[in-house]
Amino acid sequence: MGTPGADGSTLSPDGTLSPDGTLSPDGTLSPDGTLSPDGTPRAVTGVVAAATPLGRYGHRRPRPGLSRTRVVDAALQVVARVGLDGLTMRAVAAELDTATTSLYRHIADREALLAAMLGRVASHLPVNAPGHTPLERLTARLVGAHDLLAARPWVPYVLVAGQYVAAESLAFDEANLADLVAAGLAPIAAAIAYRGCWHLLVGELLDQHALPAAVAARRRHRAALPVDDLPLLASVGPTLADPAADTFAQSVALLLRAALADTTTAD
């Protein structure tokens, strides 16, 4: 029982007063002074719950749960905006408005993140290419790959500097080898020809697309060099220094024709 208050109400054993002078058996109060059958306070309809207290990182806006796919998406956005040097786990976490530690449930580290990013890009390499002949399909497929990677200038740097092999690129490799064999090359010769095409692709990307500002500056400097006593350079110099020139399609077609010169092109 409670102790009578000065106004005739009752007090709980710890000296607190119930709103209407009633107590629960254990001396606690119900929000409106009434008790549930088991003696615990009843909830009051219409009472607004208290705001969620701040956590370690404060209030964060609601967002879908993290996933490996969302982490890779965010990393690709970071690199597109600030370049490969700006890719850190902290930057990706900021892109997702989350804590850096939460990323490690989905991606082990930056190296694993780069591998996953390459895999994402490789999954878009063209496999089914248009063309009635193997040469047409090969050219279309390699030019499509060039255009895909040229729009992502960080890729060739990762390919050259890293030790990554994207499983998602294997179907692209297989399709090119199959067309080279269909064009009349033996499998080993097809592998050598395809490797030459791939080296042309990566080298062209590094030389012409990886650092656009550097490429433009190099072309300007080259155009300013004296070539009066070098007749061939004097005649083709504007082509070599043309910042808008994109001759990969012509280059790869020449390479393929040379590789297939002694074969009979098959459908």
Description of the structure:
By secondary structure, the chain is mainly alpha-helical. It is built from eleven helices and two strands. Strands 1-2 form a two-stranded antiparallel ribbon. A hairpin with a 5-residue loop joins strand 1 and strand 2. Helix 8 packs antiparallel against helix 11. The protein is flat, with a radius of gyration of 34 Å.
| Spatial order of strands in the largest sheet | 1-2
- The total of helices stands at 11
- Give the N-terminus to C-terminus distance in angstroms: 99 Å
Round the mean pLDDT to the nearest integer and report it. Answer: 81
The string of secondary-structure elements, in order, is: EEHHHHHHHHHHH
Quote the beta fraction.
under 5%
- Principal-axis shape: flat
Main pleated-sheet profile: 2 strands, antiparallel
Strand tally is 2
Q: Over the alpha carbons, how many angstroms does the gyration radius reach?
A: 34 Å
Classify the secondary structure makeup into a structural class. mainly alpha
Poorly predicted spans: 15-19, 43-63
* Helix amount: 40-55%
Question: What are the key terms here?
Answer:
mainly alpha
Short structural description:
The protein has 267 residues and is mostly helical. The protein has helices at residues 68-82, 89-96, 100-103, 110-122, 134-150, 155-161, 170-182, 187-208, 212-224, 231-240, 248-259, and strands at 3-4, 10-11.
Write the layout of secondary structure elements.
Layout (H helix, E strand, L loop, with lengths): L2 E2 L5 E2 L56 H15 L6 H8 L3 H4 L6 H13 L11 H17 L4 H7 L8 H13 L4 H22 L3 H13 L6 H10 L7 H12 L8
